[in-house]
## 1
Amino acid sequence: MTRRAKLMQAAPNGAERAAVQARRDFTATWWYTVWAIVFLELLIVLVWLATLLDAGLPPGVLVTLGVGGLVWLASTLPLLLTYRHRTDAASPSSRWSSLWPLIVAMVFGAVAVTLTGSWLLGLAPLAQSLMLVSWPRGVRLRAVLAATVLLACAWFIDARGVFSGSLSDASGLALMGFYSTTLPALTVLSLWWWDVLMSLESARASAARLAATQERLRVATDVHDLQGHHLQVIALHLELTEKLLSRDPDAALQTLRTARKSVDEARQGTRDLALRFRSVPLADEIANARDLLVAAGITTEASVGPDVDRAPASELGPVIRETTTNVLRHGGGRRARLSLARVGGDWRYEISNDVAPHAPDAAGGAGLQGIERRVAEAGGRLEVRQGKEGFAVTVTIPAEPAVLL
């Protein structure tokens, strides 16, 4: 079997692929939103500089405002980060993280007014930064309307040349005014689209939690019905045994045996029920382990044999989960490899990873001791290898269970 075919067999099923892709799309959409807003801010800074150059301002003023504009643009990034992780109840730390970018915007605006006499250039940075603040519901719309009106008034004052005759004669003032007054609305529109996606993601998460709750209720109902029936039968047989014990010991013994049989049936039914809800195909277990390691930043290769669905999932499933957790907890490396295949008359599972120089020793952990006990009960073997190059765990379980004579 080729490496490509092995990786395709170890890939997640359709539902898992859809969930992973949805998370990636969600993150990608956020970065598209960020870069769109950053591009708009960079564009407005360039428009400001081009208009001021057309107005004939000295090069020193242009350099000062250019550097100040880039510093202001950088100060809006923490506002976007705070907006990304905002909650309904803002913490004091988030308020402070939103305060200093506003101070930067005010300082840049004050410098711009002092050097150019343009009220539009002085108010626009602060207005834009305010649009990125995580306002309570219903406040942002009023804020963008107020900011647009205020910037339009500042544009009108600059155009009339009340405070700066040189700027009022610049041919780019119309373009500068248009971009400056529409920037808050364009920014809020981008954030509104992100808010819609967040609402959809929250609804999806709520639906997933509801489905999990419904599944737990269904399991609880099945367990209640199963155990309730058998316990009722056992109680009746024990009660009958108590009545027959003095009059007909043989009949009482037979009734007691029937009660013991009901106990065995209840235990087997519970085991079957737990196995039905806990059993996951081993190919999916390998794929889930691979996705978990990749999400942790570990480059992972995974391969499974063609008939892996015939392997004992009840024994190997917990082993795969425990060894994957062991790599995440103790490995600290950057590469890992998982494999599960039939070798002769045995099923062979192996996971290996490189180890960071100062990673803790995982060879004697309680997790590996539990794996060793589980594997021994299945008649298998556990092999642990640890060295400077890496750490490897190999589990071998017979394909056919041993027959006890």
Note: The longest strand covers residues 332-343.
## 2
Amino acid sequence: MIINKDRLYQYEARQRWKVFLFTFAALIAGASLFYTNYLVKSLSQSERTKAEVWAMSTRSIVTMPDVDDQFISFVYAVRDSLSIPAIITNEKGNIIFWRGLDSTKTNIKELVDTADQNLVYDPIYFEKQLARMKRNHSPIDLQLDTGEVWSVYYRDSDALRQLRIFPYLQLSLIALFLIIAYTVFNSIKKTEQNLVWVGMAKEAAHQLGTPISSLMGWLELVRTKFDAEEDNILNEMERDVKRLEIVADRFSKIGSTPTLSSHMVFPVIQDFVQYFRVRTSEKITFQLTGDKTVEAKLNVPLFDWIIENLLKNAVNAIESEGKIVVNIIDNIAKEEIFIDISDTGRGIPKSNFDTVFQPGFTTRKRGWGLGLSLTKRMVDYHQGQIFVKESELGKGTTFRIILKSNLRYEPTQV
């Protein structure tokens, strides 16, 4: 298989840059998550230390004998300094003390009658909080002088819980911003490229107009001077000049919305194949098969361009002699038309099935690599699809075009 090394290198360079940028972004995201997890672990350990201090101060309050009031105040201050929610249970699992929970609720019924009327007896709330704390962390055991063991449960502070999710939220917002920015800039880039393409195409059509008109005039002059109205050579030359007129018309239509009208697909393709066959090597045979009655909405000059590009691509793929088959299939179930163009050429690697339609990708030593890219765009104009149906190295390739059928089939009444 012959590859245009310069253009392939450019394409591969773009691919490498994409991989590099994606890898770099992944490293940044990984480093951010790693550092955040490090902070979370550090803060989590710090909160557990605070919980242990709170647990020990609580045990001291319960077990210490009569001591100086100042020391007692210090111990209470230490205990009350804990900012994270916590619950103490006895050996039976009953809640005997809590900290940092909803101050308007209690699990002690007697407090509701003696305390503020706004206090609510809600043991279910405390059970839910306890279950949540058990899922978060292992308990801190308190051994009392009486031999009884209390368990201290706690959960992460609000700041720590927010820190856990912050990097994911941050990376999601950054990714969303990059996606939007990429989409916008890519759209701007494509718009600029389209404007350049349209300008160049229309200028080419304008420049071709004058010499084509002159050639038509010279042909008529030759016919008149040499009385060669039916000369086959001149007739073929005239067909080529008219073909140039069609090409110029194609370029003038780029950038404009093409007008589509209903045509029978088989004769349209047949006319072009007959024109193309006599301008190709006799070692390459052409065969047109399939349904002759299907109809689709076509812009004939642009559709001829599609077939021309695919046939040229097939001819270039055949090294010496071979065969090109165009088969038209009516898919009645989906009301679609399949046009398969097969050749016996070099074939395409599976890895290139999608990239062959990228601008600049070519398998020839010379060429811009724009034929299949333009072909895909013109198929899009016809609201159709094109793709590599199948290919095998050394055996050939089949491209498939899918168009909407202009015929509607009614189910048979039984």
Note: Residues 28 and 34 are 10 Å apart (CA to CA).
## 3
Amino acid sequence: MIKTTLLFFLTALAEIVGCFLPWLWLKKGASALLLVPAALSLAAFVWLLTLHPAASGRVYAAYGGVYVVTALLWLRWVDGERLSYSDWLGAAVAFCGMLIIVAGWGKA
């Protein structure tokens, strides 16, 4: 389960970077050259999703929980926003949901 969780975090980071770089270009006037690493990051995101052994719907459902946690950590560390109690609680609930789904892989 640790390997799966780490893979999910890496996947989420690839997705967030792939979306953040075009946002910098469109909203903050950064160079359009950021679209190249953004495309590579999104390609890595898609590839990383294929490395899981479960059916795609289960992978996407479980991944969602880790994405929530990763996005909130990005909000804190990159955007510099303080997280609220509700942010932390929601992240914990989402992460527990991921753990429950992954624990049941292969038992359906």
Note: Helices lie at 2-28, 35-49, 56-77, 85-103.
## 4
Amino acid sequence: MTHDIHIIGGGLAGSEAAWQLAEAGVRVKLSEMRGSGDMTPAHHTDSLAELVCSNSFRSDDAENNAVGLLHAEMRALGSIIMREGDRHKVPAGSALAVDRDGFSAGVTARLSAHPNITIVRERVDALPEDGLAIVATGPLTAPGLASSIGAATGSDALAFFDAIAPIVHRDSIDMDTAWFQSRWNKGDGKDYINCPLDKEQYHAFVQALIDGEKTEFREWEKDTPYFEGCMPIEVMAERGPETLRFGPMKGVGLDDPRTGRWPYAVVQLRQDNAIGTLWNIVGFQTKLKHAEQVRLFRTIPGLENAEFARLGGLHRNTFIRSPELLDPTLRLKARPNIRFAGQITGCEGYVESAAIGLLAGRFAAAELSGDVLPPPPVETALGALLNHITGAAEAETYQPMNVNFGLFPPIIGRTKKADRKKMYTERARSALAGWLAA
């Protein structure tokens, strides 16, 4: 099949862009280097839309949460990522978490079966000279293509580190010590496994994190900053002895059945696959060496005999300075036949990456049909995120960003803080409806 557009990268953004274009009747060539003999430091399979870190798409509350609102907007636009996420949902309280293998397999099957999509397992080492293309290679772009992007943009790519949390086999968790409960009993109330620590255990654990043997940085990695939303747990520990108690190890809203009280600190695990055999340690992204992880995490009450399906890791992410390089429809100003999508644009998070892929696909489909699709209103989650990436952020200090209400235009007039989030979401729904009807 000849193609109308070339998508480079089969992650969440590339998969979503391919789906949107194919559903619009556009013939797509989707190039993915995994499966051709190449692999990234973070991936483990050649499945499209593989989830390499958490299995959570975060909050699914479309009334009070910006990412939940983004979920709803993507569903309204026929997102394959949201469709497969909903099909492969696993318990996670008020969040949307998925069976990572089932989810990726579902996306791969749907794209492979689409008559307008041709999937080619190949590494692309240079930006296409002509024809429309979408670059969605993610934060682990291959060196050759990264060099080509650098040459086209005239500026160096920025970079940051992203860390991966460990996954534990459910049957190795001691449920005489740990218990099922969601914080404040949200969702089904039993969507997390909780491992309690008393004051002495907590402070010993924090010190061990600080003292533990870490992965050494290469020379070219030493000045790379971390992304605040995916901070390694040992880096958080170094910021102060109480930092983790107000972060991923906070015990509030959880009642230890052995004492009837909130624990001093807690380690939570969240279901990672549909059958409930694998559970990931929430917020425990780490750059500790593997042997050190096993030793240290087995000091956590309830995990003394933990068996790990995957240990934590660390990889470098790269992204371009999008606010100065991209136009409002994600085209590279210097090479307008090329759009960028996903984490390489500087958005952060699975859903955000897919959302930018969705928009890139729709913008390209409109261009191919001779139409002009205006960006979604900035009052919507899609529009606010796109606006941040393509101009609202300061280019010189640009850093990865999750969708949040701080990206939206403020609500006019005096409002109660408790009502503000709902006002954002109600305004967004109205704005999206108007955009879709135009």
Note: The longest helix spans residues 417-437.
